[in-house]
TrEMBL record:
Coiled-coil region list: 146-208
GO biological process, one term: cilium movement
An example Gene Ontology CC term for this record: nucleus
Protein name: Dynein axonemal assembly factor 4
Amino acid sequence: MPIAVKDFSWDQNDKMVYLTVPLKGVKTNKVDIFSSEEYLKVSYPPYIFECLLSHPVDDEGSSAQLGNGAVIFKLKKTESIEWSQLQSPDSVNKEIMKQKREEAIEKVHKRAQEKEKGKSEVKRNNEKFSINQMMEIEESDRQRIADLKQSERNKATDDLERWKDEQIKIAEQERLLKEKLQEEKINNKIKKEKLKAAEKENAEKKENVFDSGVRQTGHITIKHTPRVFPTPVRESTTPLEDEWLKKQAESRRVVELEDKDLSEEEKNPLWLRDKGNSFFASGDYQSAISVYSHAIRLNPNIPGLYSNRAACHLKIRNFFKAVEDSSKALELLTPAVPQNAASRVKAHIRRGTSFCELEMYVEGLMDYEAALKIDKNNDQLLQDADRIRNIIQTSSDYS
C-alpha cells in the first residue's frame, strides 16, 4: 500500500518554482518521475508523491534532478506572478484529480506523437498499427495500476480517519473522567469541612453541658461494607469501577468450541495466554501469534491477548497489525481506572513504537504522551518522548 509523501518543501522567484521531494532512503534507480504543465508524480515504493499545481508551468522549460536523497523539480512559470500556494484547491477533489491525471497523461502522449511526425511517412505508416496497439495496452495497464493505487490510498485514509475518531472518543472519555474525579474531590473536601464544623459544634455543646452532670459511657458499633477495590468509597469512582468489574466478568465467558481434537486446556483462553507468553519469551513469535489468535477466537474480550499479540507483531516488524491489535486492546481497556493503568501504558507504548517505525512520528508521540499521563514518573518514557520530538523537529527544520 503506497504511503503518501507530505513532507516536501518548495520555494519560488519571479520565473521559477523549486520543489524538493525527499526520497526517504530509497535508491534513485527505483524512482519513477512523471510531470506535465499541471500535474507532477514521483513514485518510489512504498512512497508516492502527487501534486496538482495551482498554476500551469512550461513543461519544456522545466526539469527534474535526482541526487542527495531527493528529487528536485525546477519548474518554469508561464506567467511572472507570485504563487500563493503550490497545490491547487482542486487537489482534494478526487474526480478532478483523476481527470487532471488522465489529461496530463494524454498530453504527454500527444507530445510524443507530435515529435514522431518529423520522421519519414513510410516508417510511420509501417509502425502505426503496432504503436496504437502498444498505446492501448499501456493505457489500460496505467489505468489499472492507478485505480489500484487510488483504492489502496482510499483504504489507508479511511483507516487513519477511523483511528483518529477513536482517539478523539478516548480523549473525550478521559477528559470527562478527570472532570468527574475533580468534582468528586471538591465535593469530598466540602463534606469534610462540613463534618469538621459539625464536630466542632458538637464539642462546644458538650463542653457547655459538662458541669450539669456526669457523662454516661457507651459504645458504637461500626460495620464496614466489603469492597472489591482497596480505595475508600468517598475517594473512588464507583460507577467506573463497577463497569470495569462487569467487563472483567464478561471477559471470563468462554465460547464453547465443538472440537473433539482440543483438550480442556486448549479451550481455556487464560491457559493459552500463558502458553503464548512462553513462546514469546523463547523468541518463537509466530507460534505465540497463533496461540493468542486461537485464544481470541475463544474469548474476544480479553485486552491482554490483543496487547501481547501486538508485541509479537512488533517483533516481526508487522507494524500495521501491531497498531490494529494495540488499538483493540485500548478499546477494551475502558473505562480508564487505576486497576488497568499498567495495561493501558503497555498498549500505548506498543502502538506508539509501531507508528514511529512507520515514520508516523506525530501519531507515535501522541501515544507516548498518553502513556506519560498515566505513568508520569517513568524516566524511560520521558527520554523516548523527547527523542521522538527531536526527530519531528529535525524533519521540520529540514523541510
